[in-house]
Write a structure and sequence with these properties.
Blueprint: E1 19-26, H1 32-37, E2 45-52, E3 55-62, H2 65-69, E4 78-82, E5 87-94, H3 100-106, E6 111-117, E7 120-127, H4 130-141, E8 146-157, E9 163-169, H5 175-186, H6 198-205, H7 209-227
Antiparallel strand pairs: 1-7, 1-8, 2-3, 3-5, 4-5, 6-7, 8-9
Length: 231
């Protein structure tokens, strides 16, 4: 017998999980902001851009104007406004070539935040699922020397409509463990059926299969410790 209240809607749309990912893109080569960051003390922030005709304009904020002015191998920046503790600059360059941010945008993925530090471009993306993240990483592989997922926050909707978010911090992994995971992933070790077996991946890494298995197990355990930890 009803109580007069509004009945529950069992057919309500599910709350999307989605992911928030932080990508560190190493070795982009053709980004003047990233190049300028190698001479800058601390991160260059507020990186954004626009296209007008054949011109690509990048704007950014820097706390050390002298470092930006003396950066080598980049066009002379234009100072737009002095904000006291930092200054806003712009670079104008031809709209050609393949830059990392443009590749991400061409995948219909807005960039939530972009900054550069020590020659590394760091992007924050909000994506519908992990498959989309894989698409982004794969597309960037042809432009960058290394694409690193620094952190991943995944939201999975529970039956009550609440979100169960998991933070995965790859900073817990050693460089070697990251390399093992990355190589195994790229070679299709985690595919079903597998595109490469343990021996194939070990040979690519120039290590023994037993050493590969040890690194892989340790890396997976670290990530699972965070993913499956009780709150």
């Amino acid at each position: 017998m009803g109580t007069g209240g509004k009945p529950a809607d069992d057919g309500a749309a599910a709350v999307p999980g989605g992911v928030r990912a932080g990508l560190a893109i190493h070795g982009t080569g053709n980004c003047p902001v990233v190049t300028a960051s190698t001479a800058h003390d601390g991160p260059i922030t507020g990186v954004n851009w626009t296209h007008a005709g054949d011109t690509h304009t990048e704007e950014f904020r820097a706390r050390d104007p002298d470092a930006v002015d003396r950066a080598e191998g980049v066009p002379a920046p234009t100072s737009v406004v002095d904000l006291g503790d930092e200054r806003v600059y712009r670079y104008d360059r031809p709209r050609n070539g393949r830059c990392a941010c443009r590749i991400v945008e061409e995948l219909d993925c807005p960039i939530a935040d972009a900054r550069a530090e020590d020659g590394v471009l760091v992007l924050t993306l909000h994506l519908p699922d992990l498959d989309r993240l894989r698409d982004v990483v794969s597309a960037l592989d042809g432009t960058a020397e290394l694409v690193e997922v620094r952190y991943l926050v995944q939201g999975a909707a529970r039956g009550d409509g609440a979100s169960d978010r998991t933070l995965v911090d790859r900073g817990r992994l050693t460089d070697r463990q990251s390399e093992v995971l990355r190589t195994a992933y790229r070679m299709g070790y985690f595919e079903r059926p597998r595109d490469a077996n343990a021996r194939d991946v070990a040979e690519a890494l120039d290590i023994s299969p037993s050493t590969f298995a040890e690194h892989l197990a340790t890396a997976q355990r670290k990530l699972l410790d965070e993913t499956l930890a009780e709150n």
